Amino acid sequence: MSTLKMAIQKSGRLNQDSLKIIKDCGISIDNGKDQLKASASNFPLEVFYLRNGDIPQYLRDGVVDVAIIGENVLIEKGQDIDFVERLGFSKCKVSLAVPKNEIYTDMSYFEGKKIATSYPNTVQKYLNAASVSTNVHLINGSVEIAPNIGLADGICDIVSSGSTLFKNNLKEVEVLLKSEAVLAVSPRISVETQKVLDKLQFRIQSVLKGRNSKYVLLNAPNDKLESILAVLPGMRSPTVLPLAQEGWSSVHSVISKNQFWEIIDELKAKGAEGILVCPIEKMVL
Ligand SMILES: Nc1ncnc2c1ncn2[C@@H]1O[C@H](COP(=O)(O)OP(=O)(O)OP(=O)(O)O)[C@@H](O)[C@H]1O
Ligand SMILES: O=P(O)(O)OC[C@H]1O[C@H](OP(=O)(O)OP(=O)(O)O)[C@H](O)[C@@H]1O
Ligand SMILES: [Mg+2]
């Protein structure tokens, strides 16, 4: 079997969650701190620790077969590279921001002005779509400081909680895109290696489904069973087992994290008792 070469970020925001998802797929890698490359002992996988910004080019050249990377970086530097899975972590936006006390109505604000950013292509595309002519100034870090030191009138950078903007007296005025970590694939992946990727992707999907679901156990009086079962989805349908105590049943089901609290409230209102909620490690449908 051929070996799948995967790039992950060497250090930074994506590193820990990328290693965690590989681990949760049951794959053991030696992630010694100073190594730039590591092999899995129980799956045909090699992991390369690289700078996030360099990864699109490595994918394009086929130096690596797949990568865990922010969708924002693909949009900026790898429009020709597809991704096959959204991974549900490192969620953020790429936004334009201006000093807090500026009056902002629309994109015409930026006409003839200067924007500092690490995302020049993304910004330029947005400016073109709005037919605004602006000077885009590339800087690689600490972008939010630019307006305060007179380097630019506005900035375009990643926004998550908004606290970096707040601390620098800036306000978000346009959201250019929303992003999360994705599994990107080299256009040069071989047919043989694609088979290994399919296996890995199957595992990743099982892990993600598990992360997005909870296993719920509860006790229900038999006379209320029907209405309780009506709010429970389950994988196929809920499991119902008799309790030792006459007139009661134990109900087991799987609930999506998104609907979780609504369903729990409804279950309680309908007479469910002793509700237990457990994490799901993996889910294979
Ligand atoms: N504050 C944040 N909240 C959520 N996700 C973020 C945040 N900042 C960055 N990200 C996501 O994590 C990715 C990596 O960000 P990070 O700042 O660690 O690396 P970088 O400096 O852009 O890249 P490099 O590895 O080239 O140094 C970004 O491309 C983005 O997708
Ligand atoms: O909206 P917030 O939650 O404040 O997050 C946004 C900040 O996070 C990122 O920087 P990071 O902390 O990764 O530092 P960096 O500039 O060194 O990459 C990004 O470049 C923003 O500055
Ligand atoms: Mg950063």
Automatic annotation (TrEMBL):
Pathway: Amino-acid biosynthesis; L-histidine biosynthesis; L-histidine from 5-phospho-alpha-D-ribose 1-diphosphate: step 1/9. The gene is hisG. It holds the Pfam family HisG. Belongs to the ATP phosphoribosyltransferase family. Long subfamily. Keywords: Amino-acid biosynthesis, ATP-binding, Cytoplasm, Glycosyltransferase, Histidine biosynthesis, Magnesium, Metal-binding, Nucleotide-binding, Transferase. It comes from Asprobacillus argus. This is ATP phosphoribosyltransferase. HAMAP family: HisG_Long (MF_00079). PANTHER family: ATP PHOSPHORIBOSYLTRANSFERASE, ATP PHOSPHORIBOSYLTRANSFERASE ATP-PRTASE. GO terms for molecular function: ATP phosphoribosyltransferase activity. It catalyses: 1-(5-phospho-beta-D-ribosyl)-ATP + diphosphate = 5-phospho-alpha-D-ribose 1-diphosphate + ATP. Feedback inhibited by histidine. Coiled coil: none annotated. Catalyzes the condensation of ATP and 5-phosphoribose 1-diphosphate to form N'-(5'-phosphoribosyl)-ATP (PR-ATP). Has a crucial role in the pathway because the rate of histidine biosynthesis seems to be controlled primarily by regulation of HisG enzymatic activity. Its EC number is 2.4.2.17. InterPro entries: ATP-PRT_HisG_long (IPR020621), ATP_PRibTrfase_cat (IPR013820), ATP_PRibTrfase_CS (IPR018198), ATP_PRibTrfase_HisG (IPR001348), HisG_C (IPR013115), N-reg_PII-like_a/b (IPR011322), N-reg_PII/ATP_PRibTrfase_C (IPR015867). The lineage of its organism: Bacteria, Pseudomonadati, Bacteroidota, Flavobacteriia, Flavobacteriales. Residues 51-205 form the ATP phosphoribosyltransferase catalytic domain. It comes from the Bacteria. It is found in: Cytoplasm. Residues 211-282 form the Histidine biosynthesis HisG C-terminal domain. Its cofactor is Mg(2+). The keyword Cell membrane does not apply.
